[in-house]
Write a structure and sequence with these properties.
31% of the residues lie in helices and 27% in strands. It is built from 11 helices and 15 strands. It comes from Kribbella lupini.
Length: 331
């Protein structure tokens, strides 16, 4: 490989994976002040990465060329001014590599702010941490945005998905009673193994199942996967001054049971991973790393692809289940 160049994947326009994704050589990035450069080992792919490339949600390209993916694992090999040289050689997981930045982790090297490269103990396999950032930090925020949940009842919808798994682990480790919803009977046992105290099938009897488990009006926090399908249930099972933190919806303009929520003084938070307060990101990074090390948070990895096969990897994410992850092996 030519000196000063790296192997990378990129796109210059939004569109279908095989139409716009390219693999070749790009200049190796240099860390700016406060940044570190990471030699990438593995890159995680999230539905948000697919959305940016396809132009979901009305998104446009903020940069003429984008190296995709926000999450990854690697080793710091260079630091910018203001960063301790002792960081060189650290094994890290990175997050927000491609948020408001053109260069993500689908390349041999990426640069991120030093605080977005989190020390990863050797006991954690790189595949477990490569896709942690977007879903993990989102799940953490969905549980903790309203404060400490110790002693609370937390309802996690879509508990076996990438975000749901993190929400279950965070809530359980924080001392909450965790109630999980799943879409298939086979997923109930999975949710319980992930740490939920109770797991229920979504359906007409869901409210009754929740009431049987913890009583009426007893949920403190709902960490929600599908606002349009969950908000009516949340209005029924939340206690007074409870809260909903939602990170996705099917219907973009869903109906809302306003008075039911208002009479209970329910707080509804709409959360998006790119724009959490940095303090929340750092708290999540600490807690998620600890959960990985303890084995309380684990992801099922269904496929690993080489960088050259990034288009196939993106198609796999588009067609596959959110309950398991797809990893791009870069080095």
């Amino acid at each position: 490989m030519t000196a000063g160049l790296m192997k990378a994947a990129w796109y210059d326009a939004q569109g279908a994976a095989r139409d716009v994704l390219r693999v070749g050589e790009l200049p190796v990035p240099e860390p700016a002040p406060g940044e570190v450069r990471v030699r990438v080992e593995a890159s995680g792919i999230h539905v948000g990465d697919i959305g940016k490339r396809q132009g979901y949600w009305g998104s446009t390209m903020a940069f003429p060329r984008v190296v995709p993916h926000g999450d990854g694992v690697g080793v710091i090999d260079a630091v910018g001014n203001g960063v301790a040289t002792e960081r060189i050689g650290e094994r890290v997981w990175v997050f927000l590599a491609q948020s408001y930045r053109p260069g993500g982790t689908a390349a041999e090297y990426t640069v991120v702010p030093s605080g977005h490269a989190v020390v990863l103990p050797g006991v954690v396999d790189s595949a477990q941490a490569a896709g942690l950032g977007i879903p993990g930090i989102t799940g953490h925020r969905a549980v903790t945005a309203g404060g400490d949940v110790a002693g609370s009842n937390v309802l996690v919808t879509g508990a076996t998905g990438a975000v749901g798994r993190a929400a279950v682990a965070v809530a359980r480790r924080a001392g909450a009673t965790v109630l999980a919803t799943v879409r298939r009977e086979s997923e109930r046992e999975v949710a319980l193994k992930l740490g939920a105290h109770h797991a229920f099938m979504s359906g007409p009897s869901l409210k009754d199942q929740i009431v049987d488990a913890v009583g009426p009006d007893a949920i403190d926090v709902v960490a929600d996967l599908a606002f349009d399908r969950t908000i009516d249930l949340a209005a029924e099972v939340l206690r007074y001054n409870g809260s909903v933190a939602t990170y996705a919806t099917g219907e973009t303009r869903p109906a809302v049971p306003y008075w039911q929520l208002a009479f209970k003084n329910v707080a509804v938070r709409f959360i998006s991973n790119d724009d959490f307060p940095e303090e929340a990101n750092q708290l999540a990074a600490r807690d998620l790393t600890a959960a990985l090390v303890a084995g309380d948070l684990r992801y099922d990895v269904r496929a690993e692809y080489s960088l050259e096969d990034i288009a196939a990897a993106h198609e796999d994410v588009e067609q596959g289940s959110g309950a398991s992850r797809v990893i791009l092996r870069v080095a």
